[in-house]
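Take a careful look at the protein record below. Let me know whether the C-alpha cells fit the sequence:
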Amino acid sequence: MKIAITADPEIAVPPLYYGGIERVIHMIICELVNLGHDVTLFANNDSSVPGKLEPYSSSENSKATIVKNSWLITKKTVFKNFDIIHSFGRLAYLLPLMPLKIAKLMSYQREPTLQQIKRAMILSKNGSLRFSGCSNYITKQILPVAPADTVYNGVDFSKYSCTTSVAEDAPLVFLGRIEPIKGPHTAIEIAMQTKRKLIIAGNISEGQQTYFDQKIKPFLGEQITYIGAVNDIQKNEILSQAAAFLMPIHWQEPFGIVMVEAMACGTPVIGLAKGAVTEVVENNITGYYANQTGELIERIADIKKIDRTQVYQVAKARFSSQEITQQYLNLYQKF
C-alpha cells in the first residue's frame, strides 16, 4: 500500500525525551516499511524515519502554521495515488481533503472534540473518513457521531529488557510529566506509606515548578529521588530494575504508553482506575488497579505475587509493534 501518515509539528519522530504519540508513529512506520509498504511521513523537520519524510516548514503552534501544514499535506497527496492518509496530527490538516474520495483515518490519542468530528463528517465524501481511538475510553466518545474502532498503542518490545526477577528492595518507579494530574505526589505518598524507595523521572511541565517545589522537592532524599527527564536507554534501565511502576493518575488517561513500556520490562503496573488504565492493566496478571490510593498502598505487598515473565508475555501479545500495526492494516481495509 501507499500510505501517508501525518503527525503534529512540535516534536520530532521519534522523540528524544517526551513524546508518546511520536514514538507510536515511529513504531508503526518502521513496521509498515518492514512489511514492504510505501510510507510518507509529514512531520517535524528533525524527524528520522524509514520511508519518505515531508518536513513541515515550522514547528510552531499557530493558525498560520496549521494552514501551511495543511496545504503541504494536500498538495503532496492529492492525485498522488495514496491508498490512505492516516492522521495522528490535527484533524484540521485533513480539511481540504474531506470532499475527496481518498481514504482518511484520523487516530485520536487524546480527548476528541466532537464538534470538530461532526463538521468533518459533514464535509467528508461518504465513506471516506473513519476514526480510531487509542482506547475504548476514547472510541466510545466518538462512536455516537462517527464510525470508530479501537486500536491500542504499543511499543517495539525489542528495545526493552525483560527482567524476570529483581532485588527484594528494588524501588518503585514513577515516570511521567511532573504535574498534579499525573500524580507524582501520590506516588510519594505510596512510597512513604510502604517504606519503599521511589525513583521519580520526567520533565517538569511548563508552569509546574511551584508544584514541584512544594509537593515533590521537600520529600527528596535517600528514599525518594528525582532524576529528571530520561531518554529511552535510561528509561529501560530504571523500568527493568523496578519492583513496580506506579500510575497514580488524577485524570482520565487516554492510554498511557509508559504502562506498556514498564510491562515490556516485565514490571507490573499499579495504578488508579481512571481512563484507560483498566483496559491496559489486567488485574492480578500484569499488575493491579484500584479506585483509591489506600487500596494501591495495600497492593504493594502483593507485587511479589505477579509473575514478571507473564507480564512480559501478556503485554507483548497485546501491544507489540507487529500486533498494533496489523490492527491498523485491518482498519485500512475497511474503506
